[in-house]
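Hey, I was hoping to borrow your eyes for a little while. I'm sending you its amino acid sequence along with the C-alpha cells. Take your time with it, there's no hurry, and the full record follows here.
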Amino acid sequence: MSIPGLDEIHAFLPCRTPQRWIENALASPDLMLIDHAHCEKKAASTALSLMYRYVEDTELLERMSRLAREELRHFEQVLSIMKKRNIAYCHLTPSRYAAGLRKPVRTEEPGRLVDTLIVGGIIEARSCERFAALAPHLDDELSAFYTGLLKSEARHFRDYLHLAEKAAGGDVSERVERFLALDHELIQLPDSEFRFHSGPVPDAA
C-alpha cells in the first residue's frame, strides 16, 4: 500500500528502524502505547513552548497551534485505546533520543530557533517512519490508527523544516545533516530500555 509522504520521509532519514526494535515493540505492546502517549504530549508541549517563546512570528504561531491541537488529539486517542485495553497510563523515564538530538542546539538566536525546529522535524519524521514500520505487524485497530497518523506526522515534519529555513533565511541542509547523523547513531546503537524512540534493546524479553 502506498502511503502519501512516506517515500519523502524514507528519503530524508539516514536509516530505517532496526528489525530488533520492531521485535522489542511487539514484545512490549503496553509499554509501547504508554510511551507513545508521552511522545504525543511532549510534541504538543514543544509546539506550545515555541509559541510562547516566539510571539512575533505569526506563521510559526499558526502552524504550531495547529500542530499542538493535533498532537493533543493523538494523545487522547492513544489514551482511549489504552483504556479499552486496561492499560494504565503512568510515568516513564524518557529515552535518550530527544535529549541526544538537542545536545548541539545553539544557544544564540536565530540559531537556537533554527536548530530547535530542525530537531522537531527529525523527531516527527522518525515517528512517522516508526508508525509505518509497526503498522503491518499490529492488530487491526492499532494498524489503522498508526497508518492514520502518518499523514499528519509527515505534514508536521514539513512544517518544521519550512519554518527552520524561514528562520535561517535560507538553506539549512548543513545543520540538518548534523542532526541526522545524531539520529542515525541514536536509532542504531543498542539501548538499555525500550521506548518509542529508543534504539534496539538486545536483551528485551
